[in-house]
Each structure stands twice: as structure tokens, then as C-alpha cells.
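job 3f2a | input accepted
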Amino acid sequence: MKKYTVDCIYDLILSVLSDVGMNITLKQDNSGINMSYNFIGDYVSFDSKRLIEAHKEILLPLPLEVYIKTITLHELGHAIDRQALQESLIRTLEIYEMKKQYSFKEIYNNDRLLTMILEEHIMNIKFEETAWDNAEQLNKEVHLVDMNEFEVIKAHSLSTYRKLYQEDLNLYNELFNHKVLQLA
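job 3f2a | predicted structure (184 res):
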């Protein structure tokens, strides 16, 4: 198995940026997030250790290079959607401030606050789906990744966002049903 160093991963990501013709700054970090697009600073960052770990979470055996290329395309898909991300900033900050103001217990026992969490999930899922759609278009133009492998990685990535939303939606429904029973 090929040993992937930080420099090797950096060069691989840069090659994708070059292949698609996008001039975006690339930064290596140790955030624990495999790869992220920062729409405020307009750059992509990656954590090489987390990329390798996240790759191992995919149930099908796919080459790490394919995983990294696909995730890079996805982050570039966010860059293409930068204006929409910027337009969401005010609401995103309102939700962020609410999370700082209230405890976890307070949020999950208040239907109004929990509704804001659900709204955040819905926004995130929409941004993720749009980024994947954009990534698919990029991939169709440059043919970097087999579409079957692309779809496996896409499905895995989206499932994490959808799972978190469903868990919070279930909690919201329990809270709502409990309130209805109290009123009856």
C-alpha cells in the first residue's frame, strides 16, 4: 500500500484544483475535519490524518486517491455555491448565537429552539446536496473519478447529515407529542 504523506495528499488535491481549472487557496490543518471549504476566506483546508481515517469508514474498498479526489470535487462544489453560502451567513450566525446562549438541555426541551436546529440541518443538507451536484458536473467535465465510486462516496457523506437531521427530527416529534398530550 502506498504511504500517503501530507505533501503527497497536498499535491493530489492541488492536481484536482488544476484539472478543473479552479484557483482556490489550499491549506493543510489539523482540525479533525477531513476537508472543508471556507466560503468567507474562499479556501479549501484539509486534515490529512482525518482524510485517511474517513476513507476507512467507507464500506466498499476504494483507493484513497479516489476518495481524496472525490471529496476535493465536493469541496469545490461548495466553492461554486459560494454566493448562496454567503447569503445564509446572517441566519447561520443567529443559530450559532442561540446555541451559545442556551444549554443542550434547554435547546432540546424547547420546540422553538429545536426548530432552529432542524432549520440548520435542512440548510446544511441543501448545501451538501448542491455541492455534490456541482461536484458531479465537474467530474463529468474532467472525468477524474469513476461515477460508481463517486456515488458511493456521495451516499456515505450525505447519510451522515441526513442521520443527524432524522435524530433531531425524532426528538422534536417526541417533544411536540409530549406537549400535545399535556394539553389534552
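job 3f2a | Residues 107 and 114 are 6 Å apart (CA to CA).
job 3f2a | closed
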